[in-house]
Predict the structure.
Amino acid sequence: MMQLAQLNQLSDSEFTAQLCALYEHSPWVAAHVLAQRPFANLAALHAALENAVHSASPDLQLKLICAHPELAGKAAVSGQLTAASTSEQRHAGLAHCTTQQFEQIRELNALYVERFRFPFILAVKGHNPDTVIAQMQARVGNAADQERTVALQQICRIGWFRLTDLVAEPIADQIQSQCVELAQYSDLPEGLACSYLTPAHQATALRIRDYMLAAGLTVDIDAVGNVTGTWHSEAESAKTLLTGSHYDTVINGGRYDGRLGILLPVAVVSRLRRQGHRLPYHLQIVAFAEEEGVRFRSTFLGSRALTGDFPLALLDSVDAQGISLRDAIIAAGHDPQAIGRIARDPDQLLGFIEVHIEQGPVLLNEDRPVGVVSSIAGSVRSQLSVTGLAGHAGTVPMHLRQDAAAGVAEMVLAVEQICSGQSGLVGTVGQLLVPGGAMNVIPGRCEFSLDIRSDDDAGRDSAYERVIARLQDIATRRRLALTHRKVVETSAVACDDRLSQLLAGSIDQITGQAARTLPSGAGHDAMMMARITPMAMLFVRCGNGGISHHPDESLAGEDIDTAAQVFSQFLDRLACQT
Ligand code: HGY
Ligand code: MN
Ligand code: MN
């Protein structure tokens, strides 16, 4: 593969010649971006090529669309396809489909061309004859302008897959630009919010699927929206090592939380495969669809589907718009009835390893790029509601008020005071709301959240009881009613010694420094996976004081490089023990 740096140096004619196969018989696309060199990363080059396609005249766009062959069509039968199309159609099984499939595709091609006067275009990577036929059947009824848009989008996807097969870039550049690209899919006009199964979340899943396909993985999106890429071992009966992290985010979050743990394994596997590397076990990278608990206040939905304890009772819970979890899953095109089939067989697993940003300052303060997680703090999270008496802000004397918000304000300070008094204990009120509040009305109701964590379960549980008791005292004294409901309760989890030692040995070898072991105050999918298989976690240093769950979350390229080398070394060390 050519390095992007080399491509940037080529003469104009060599550059155009190198990229002429990306867009079928249409070298003008590559020529169009010549003047924009040098490209900082592959994503920037692809964005420029995509812009060349979308900004071309309608005539030129139609010419580009018509330059494409039919799928399993006459050109394929007569061997007239370009090398790239030949390979793509062969990998999708179109050169060996059954007579019936072939006949169906031929009929659908004819119907499609008769309707639209241009060929049906699909990036067939990851497809098979049946899914190609399903796509043709789904699209043949579209409106003409819609199909023209889809055809150009598919042409750009084909171009991107071909580009990633042709040109390589430094792993840190790839991961950084993919984190930037995924952060563009947001529920917000500004900043990153990717809540479970929103349109932004679904677009993120499809882009992660494409990253996995480009890395040569077999990809599946399951009934709760987890995107799983598998690198199959040649030993069919081999066990599976799971890795991955979540792709949903908090509101106004950072671009690395969760995503690094998906993109780094994908990038490492892509390079290992191209180097002809083989593993004696299957490697599955899981992009978990829901970990943060933002939309339905239930965390770890993605990983709990794999561990077989997805909270089915929650399917009737509703989000802030009154949409049930069940309806959100169905609206995203998934089948709630199929959730039970996602559970993994623990006997088939070697373990689970999660790569994640530290989300704290320890590695930064000790000038270490990576560390091994010793344990993950457990947490108890509750939704609380305080009811007082609404009234006129101007007429009710202060001593007669039952002000719900004033009561909660005192309660928040009580949480802070109790949780400040015990090492390793933290307490947070992250949400606080006066439903339907108005400036001139004494709050009759106030809702808030409570998140208490510690790496010591007993200490956390006793702190939680003391907090609730204190909140009740405050409510009683203020003639308020307090209700509270636990929504999450996860015990602290120790990481597996054997896998952690393999990680530590990999860190020693790659960094030349004895590995630092540290606890995680943040929760992670790994704590769910620990219920069915041994797990370990690799922490990667964060910049900006270690800030996270914030747009200033940051990660240095050299630390991505180090983490990728450690991850790769870990895979090999595990292989030696398998
Ligand atoms: O809240 C947490 O610890 C994680 O970021 N979901
Ligand atoms: Mn998080
Ligand atoms: Mn996370």
